[in-house]
């Protein structure tokens, strides 16, 4: 079964505030370059969705497509650009991908049809009240924070995207689209280092981790 890595990298990086986020560099290498390099050993091809008008950096061994206005639209554009039987969707914004997690997600996707990296929630959770003060405590037992990579049989994910498009349904990730169609999604233990670079604080963390990671990638 051929496996394709699909990297949505067409975001504008509004919360980070440094322009298109996938091109932001950490210790001399772009977030996109780091994510793509981590995926290459696990897949037969890599496809990247880019903002309109931008081209792939030279160090990214991939095929580019133009992304959409949302992450969901960018993933759909990527899905339509490959005929691989299995796809591994991974945010460009998660540059530190342990090889064991990528391998486990692909294996689970082959077995179940859909799988995602995720971590059990470790913090106390509360829904804020109207004034921004403490509202209701959310019991955290059984709650997982969803990461990428997420692996799928391509036909299942394409059908789930088609159903969402028909209904005008927007999801924050692809596993959620599968679950919405009644499909099973296996939760695979992720990794704290797989955090998403979203805010300036996350970028500072990435800059601190990069030298350690580059000396001994996992
Ligand atoms: N229209 C979009 C929006 C997001 N993404 C990608 O989806 C991943 C997760 O999105 P996020 O972290 O929210 O990135 P941005 O949309 O760039 O960030 P922001 O919401 O702060 O603008 C990123 O790799 C981003 O490039 C994409 O391919 N196409
Ligand atoms: C796909 C994702 O990374 C899983 O946690 C997340 O939902 C992306 O959210 P964003 O707001 O598009 O960064």
Automatic annotation (TrEMBL):
Domain of life of the native organism: Bacteria
Annotated catalysed reactions: 2-C-methyl-D-erythritol 4-phosphate + CTP + H(+) = 4-CDP-2-C-methyl-D-erythritol + diphosphate
InterPro entries, alphabetized: IspD, IspD/TarI, IspD/TarI_cytidylyltransf_bact, ISPD_synthase_CS, Nucleotide-diphossugar_trans
Chain ranges passing through the membrane: none
GO MF annotation terms: nucleotidyltransferase activity
Record-linked HAMAP family: IspD
Entry protein name: 2-C-methyl-D-erythritol 4-phosphate cytidylyltransferase
Organism from which the protein derives: Deinococcus actinosclerus
Encoding gene, per UniProt annotation: ispD
């Amino acid at each position: 079964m051929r496996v394709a890595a699909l990297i949505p990298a067409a975001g504008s990086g509004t919360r980070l505030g440094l322009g298109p986020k996938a091109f932001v560099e950490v210790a001399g290498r772009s977030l996109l370059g780091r994510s793509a390099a981590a995926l290459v050993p696990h897949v037969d091809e890599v496809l990247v969705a880019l903002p309109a008008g931008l081209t792939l950096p030279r160090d990214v061994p991939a095929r580019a497509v133009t992304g959409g206005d949302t992450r969901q639209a960018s993933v759909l554009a990527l899905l339509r650009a490959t005929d691989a039987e299995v796809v591994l969707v991974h945010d460009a914004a998660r540059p530190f991908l342990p090889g064991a997690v990528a391998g486990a997600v692909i294996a689970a996707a082959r077995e179940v049809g859909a799988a995602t990296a995720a971590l059990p929630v470790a913090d106390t959770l509360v829904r804020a009240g109207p004034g921004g003060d403490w509202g209701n405590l959310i019991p955290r037992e059984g709650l997982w924070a969803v990461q990428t990579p997420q692996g799928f049989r391509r036909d299942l994910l394409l059908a789930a995207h088609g159903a969402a498009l028909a209904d005008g349904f927007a999801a924050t990730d692809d596993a959620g689209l599968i679950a919405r169609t009644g499909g099973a999604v296996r939760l695979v233990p992720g990794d704290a280092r797989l955090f998403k670079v979203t805010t300036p604080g996350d970028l500072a963390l990435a800059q601190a981790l990069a030298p350690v990671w580059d000396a001994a990638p996992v």
